[in-house]
Specification:
Number of helices: 7
Strand content: 25-35%
Bound molecules: adenosine-5'-triphosphate, magnesium ion
Order of helices and strands: EEEHEEHEHHHEHEHEE
Structural class: alpha/beta
């Protein structure tokens, strides 16, 4: 589903943010991406959702290739990938329900089927009772659950999470990882970048560790 083949990325001449990366992610995988600040985690995720492109090597995602994808195809690729961030990126003037529904509305969906999908996603993250609340009234963990529901409602084959627990207390963090594990059990691959190695180790799963842009364990 995702093949990263001998990928290198330079932001500055002669200096590699990522070097000779090979990763293969299959349907149903749960992977933690660890490494110190600046080790290249966010850069790797951006290469997968094709926000940036490799200087060497190739990224293949759901049949799209980094070397040949056209600008107008990128939104279609993104629809197949769920992305969540440390800072949630919710729309402040929309309720929980509306934030999730919006992800489908922009793809042209509406009506009863759309409403059912939104409620299913909110139920999965345990937030259906907060559907009419606005983001500013929610805890950090609840905001992240909303962001997860918004990512999942499009039924992506993989969920990319960049420090999803970075703004959440330890208990809430464990809850978020448990939700991601449930999402994974239901058939969606998950790639989660995190500083929280200890927590990740406790939760179990496969690890990829980056050090100065290179993989040190697999
Ligand atoms: N657009 C850019 N221009 C120049 N350098 C960049 C750019 N994006 C990232 N870098 C550099 O590439 C390296 C890897 O950055 P990246 O954001 O991938 O690290 P990270 O592992 O996600 O770190 P953190 O844990 O702090 O989020 C860093 O040294 C960073 O400064
Ligand atoms: Mg980062």
């Amino acid at each position: 589903m995702i093949e990263i083949r001998n990928v290198s990325k330079r932001f500055k001449k002669g200096w590699y943010a990522l070097k000779n990366i090979d990763i293969s992610i299959a349907k149903g995988d749960f992977l933690f991406l660890t490494g110190q600040t600046g080790s290249g985690k966010t850069t790797l995720l951006r290469l997968i959702y094709m926000d940036i492109f490799p200087d060497e090597g190739e990224v293949a995602v759901a049949g799209f290739l980094s070397s040949t994808i056209k600008e107008e195809e990128i939104p279609f690729l993104r629809r197949r990938i769920g992305i969540i961030f440390q800072d949630f990126k919710l729309l402040k003037d929309k309720t929980v329900y509306e934030n999730v529904a919006f992800a489908l509305e922009v793809t042209g969906q509406s009506g009863r089927k759309m409403r059912e999908k939104v409620m299913k996603a909110l139920t999965l993250v345990g937030l259906s009772h907060k559907r009419n609340d606005f983001p500013y009234t929610l805890s950090g963990g609840e905001q992240q659950k909303t962001a997860i529901a918004r990512a999942l409602v499009r039924e992506p084959f993989i969920l990319l999470a960049d420090e999803p627990t970075g703004n959440i207390d330890p208990e809430g963090s464990e809850e978020i990882i448990k939700i991601l594990q449930e999402v994974n059990t239901a058939g969606t691959a998950v790639l989660m970048a995190t500083h929280g190695v200890e927590l990740a180790k406790r939760m179990g799963g496969r690890f990829i560790n980056l050090e100065q842009g290179q993989i040190t364990t697999k």
